[in-house]
Amino acid sequence: MHTSPAVRIGALAPLTPPGWAEAGRHLLAGLDLAVRDTNAAGGIDGRPLELVVRDTAADPARAAAAVDELAGLGVAALAGEYHSVVARAAAARADALGLPFLCSSAVLDALTDHPTEWVARIAPPQSRGWRGYADFLLGRLGADRCRIAVAADPGVYWEAGIRVLREHLAPYDGEVVVLDARALGPEGVCDALVAHHASALLLLVGHPEPAVPLVRAVRRDERLAGILLGAPAGQPELPSWASLLGADGAGIPFLRYLPDLPEGLTPLGARVAAALRERLAEEPSFVAFEGYDTGVVLAELLRAHGPDRTRLAPAWRKVAVEGTRGPIRFSRVPGIGVRQWDGAPVQVVDRDPADPARFRVRHTV
User: Fold this and answer.
1) pLDDT at position 352 over 90
2) CA geometry: angle at 98 spanning 313 and 76, to 5°?
3) 0.90 exceeded by the pTM?
4) In this structure, are residues 31 and 295 in contact, taking their beta carbons and an 8 Å threshold?
C-alpha cells in the first residue's frame, strides 16, 4: 500500500458535448489503466501515480484555463486531449508555463507555433495520415476520377486536412471542392455532389451532427449510388457510429492508428486490449491505446527523472518504451515543432458492409 504523497499528472479529455465525449471516454480509460498498472508495479519510486482529470468539452479557452489550474495544483506533467484545436491551446499554455505535455490523440501538425521541448506527441502528424489517405483515394478511384468533394465545418484542423489533400492530389490533376455542410444541409450537399460530378464525398465535420444526417441523405439518394463516402478524421471508429447508422455507416474508409489486429499488437498491447475491452464493455478504439501509451511513457519518464518539471522536458529524446503498438521513441520530425513518436502505425480501414462490427484494412500508410 502506498503511503507517500502521490505524483500527479493532469489529464485533459473531452468528456461532455460539444466535445466528442465517446473519444474522451476511451482516452481516459487508457490513461487510467496505465496509471493503475504503474501503481500495481510499485508506482513512481514507491509513490502512487494519480490522474487529475479536467473536461475540455472541445473548448480551447476551457482547456487553457485547465492547464493554468493544473499547473497551480502542482502536477508533474500533462497528458491527453483528442481535439486538435483544443490540444493546440493546451500546448501553448503548457509551453508558456514550462509544464511538460504529452499529447495523446491530436494530430494537427502545427500543435505549437514554434519548436519547443515542453511538448511531445504520441499520435502521428495529420500530414502523414492524410497523405496516406490521399494515396488510398488515388488507388481506389484512379487519377482520372479523383474529383473529391469535402463537406467541411470551419476550423484549423479541417482546413489543414483540405490543404494536405489538395497538395497531394494536385500532381495527378485531382480536384478538391469544398462544400459548406451546415449552410447547404444534407439535401443541398447531395445536389452539389451531382452538379460537380464528384466521385467521393469526405466528411470533414463533427459527429453525430452533421455527419450522421449527411451519410443518411447520400445513401438514400439514387443519383449518388456510385459515390465513395469517406471520413479520414475517424468518426466511424467508435461504436456510436455503428449504432446510429447501422449498415449505412459501413464501407466508409477512415484513418486508424493501429496495426493489424490482433497479431500486430505487442504482447503488452494484447494484454491491454483485453483489459480495456472489459473496462469499456466494448471494443477499445485506437484512442484508448493512445491513452494507455501516453500513461506508460510518462510513468517511465517519471521513474527515470523524478517529478521535477525542468528535468522531464529535456528527457523526451531519451525515452525508449515498449508501447501497445510498438517501441516508442521521440524525435524531431521536419515541419513539426514538438517531439514526435514517428513510428505510430497508420491504416485506412472501414466497417465491413457484410458485418459492420468488423473492420477491414484497405490501405497501410
Assistant:
1) yes
2) 65
3) yes
4) yes
